Amino acid sequence: MADNDVNRRKFLYGTAAAGVTGLAGCSGGGGGGDDGSGDDGSGDDGSGDDGSGDDGSSDDGSDEASLELRVGTSAGGTQDVGLAVERAVSQESDTLEYSTIESPGYIGTIYRMAQEQFNAGITDNNSLNKALDETGQFGEQPVSRIPQYGFSAFPYSIYVVARDGTDIETFDDLAGANVYPAEPGYSTRATTLDVWSQDPTADVYEEMNIQDMGVGDAPGAMEEGTIDASIAYGTPGVRYTGFVQEMASRVDLHYVEPTDALIESAESFAGAGTTTTSYDDWPIADTDIGTDEVFTWDLEVLYTFNPEADADAVYELCRVVDEHNDVVNEGEAQFNDYESTADMLGYAQERIPVHAGAVQYYQDNDAWDDNLQEGE
């Protein structure tokens, strides 16, 4: 989202029953969720070919009724968002055919889009930046092209909580502590470690005892005392990931105050955004963690399109999610609640081109930012 006001989102946090179970499919505990993981647990990086050779584009784009987008979507919470968008398109568009295609996480989506297995996909800014810079997994296996920006979808906002009795009060106190930054392979973990490993927080990060385990084991480890602190994350005003809610239901937790150095690291990191959210608007299972607000670094999840994706199809999808944003939100509250068309550009970066169909939509609605570049 473009600013720090969580009240722009429909507040559908809901019941305790939705608490632990509501994100069970997203948590990755069963090996199938993404929940910011960028990995479906299959061990597949998404670089394999299904032999289709089809990116889902319509033949020549001349028949308005044949507009088609095949959207690569990882499992769990991201798929819930994708299916909500698909339902909105089905209800509100007479010209666009939208298909949800399961994809192995955010990184896998970028690989499969490069192979033209589908012409659109949901991924995140940190993965896109790594693909551009050929770092991380893309350093070993780069892609020949990078998907282009379409519109913002939702954030996974991240901060740190500690177990009561650990004497951990600020980020600096994490030096020497047993810290759990989520399951290996999760994009929320990768983004967190990317932020922490920069100057001026690298010295604290290097002294942490990083814990590696599945999210299903983490609440028990926190209860047993083998985890001192953990990241907490979810979508502000909506819900937290399941393992965080389970931790809060089993252990007394408190907020770990960010230092100036942590704020500087988060704000300077190109792969993430930052937000400050009222805790009253986003409590963990109605528990008191001793703060009025939380400072978060945000995994920014967005819709992207291959350059070859039909511009009219992209334009029509932008129109549906903008004009019928309420329909998408009714299907899945995690999707961003736009106050204006310009909010759709909330995760756009100057170095990542915007698809021509989306550019035209923004221009037609007086929302285009001339600092951004149009994709070729």
TrEMBL record:
Signal peptide: none
Compositional bias segments (type: Gly residues): 25-35
Positions of region (Disordered): 24-66
Cited InterPro entries: TAT_signal, TRAP_TAXI
Acidic residues: bias regions: 36-66
SUPFAM superfamilies in UniProt: Periplasmic binding protein-like II (SSF53850)
Coiled coil: none
UniProt cross-references to PANTHER family, sorted A to Z: SLL1037 PROTEIN
Descriptive protein name: TAXI family TRAP transporter solute-binding subunit
UniProt organism field: Halorubrum rubrum
